[in-house]
Write a structure and sequence with these properties.
2 strands, globular
Length: 157
Amino acid sequence: MTKELKQEYTLKVSQANPSEMIVILYEILLEYIEEARVCHGNQDLEGFRAAIVHATAVLRELSSSINFENEIAGNLLSLYVYCTKELSKASIHNSAEELYHAEIVIQKLHKTYIEVASYDKSSPVMKNTQTVYAGLTYGKESLVVHLNQNLNRGYTV
């Protein structure tokens, strides 16, 4: 994942509510799956396996965030376990086919959580973060993003 993409996700995370956080995790997971596919196509075995390790870490995070009081929690965990197995198979067999299997499941979950997030009007998970203003001014060639510089930012205790 590129440095710019990581910065973009960091900005999204700082402004996201709980449902949007799940959507962001799915987007990151899909990025890592795509990165693995590209590395496999370029015969970059080390990059392929590294991307799978990162994707598996995101799946672990998603699994640990499941609310087991919810009736669909078991089904969701089963889907995450299936995707983890497919990614492991891809790594072991040096095959991109299993990436496709995991990607289909994650794309469907991503689409569903985008819908769920549209109804979630809760406040962002992170408090006391920089305020982001985008689209108020433009540079010669691009949109300029302004941040409200607050020296006391991050989590409040």
